[in-house]
What does this fold into?
Amino acid sequence: MKVLHLIQKSQLRGAEIFASQLASHINHSGNKAIIVSVFPGEAELPFTGNIISLNGNLGGRLHDLKAWKKLSQIIKEEKPDIIQANAGDTLKYAVFSKIIYRWKQPIVFRNASTISLYIKTWAQKKWNSFLFRFTHKIISVSNSSAHDFAKLFPQYKDKIITIPVGIEHVESPKGLNGKINERVHLNGQGPVIIHVGGFTFEKNHTGMIDIFELVSKKDPSAKLYLVGDGPLKPGIEELVRLKGLDSKIKFCGFQKNAMQYIRGADVLILPSIIEGLPGVILEAFYCRIPVVAYDVGGIKEIVINHKTGRLIRNGDENAFANGIADALNPNTYNESLIDNAYSLVTRQYLNTQIADQFLDIYRSVAS
It folds into this structure.
């Protein structure tokens, strides 16, 4: 089995990181995976092989004949059994390359979010319906994402399946002090709250700052660590200054190994307004760090309220702040949530297991 993974570009975003990890596991399984990026990028992805760029034209994505032809040439040379499109413009490039240059390999599309929140107009729906017509399978990251897709495009419901995101298994997951699974205070004093994610509107950093302000009023020693980068970061930095929270909120920037920061925290928060199934929650579960999150997208499929974490009604900032305070209490109830979460991720959400599910789907499509 040979799989060509098409990604947007070499960037350390969830869709590209997971595709790279999946491709590496496919290679380790005795099968073969290659990665092709639509646009050039400079990030070092976790893939044990070369990444070929189509050098696509950002300003001409609807008439990028040169890139579509290059993709067809790669397919002709590499002879993959399956083409998997992973978010962004990847499906568009795969479909138009296939139409014009008439290669025969089936296309699977990975649906990693709540698609109805992005496709809103009649024109957008018709355009995407045309593209999805050329897919053989639509692999959704969560049951919630799958149901959302089926509601928007009922004509393709028979193509939709669910395979979740996974995380990498680490033999000895060590914290910053070298002790396995032991939490370390990043600043040496007071509770540390952490968020990992890009500064985009989906992650709701503005609401997060309001929530932390509520927490800070109850516990002035609390600190918030923000790991990530993105276009909205300058505005959030200004908001923090205006609220006088400079000394309590640390902007950590992009980090290659965000799990080290997660291990050093006391609670991970995710007050997003849009999500598919965020891998950062699974990483927190694996590091035995409690999680508080809004009930959006597929989050409820892993953050089971009062079983594996605390799930808060979307937009209820007071309840979210109270959930953080509750999660910080060192008691047997919270320890049971942590144990349940760790058991869930190790039983169902390791990439070694997830890769086998993808390979089963590839075989069923290619046969």
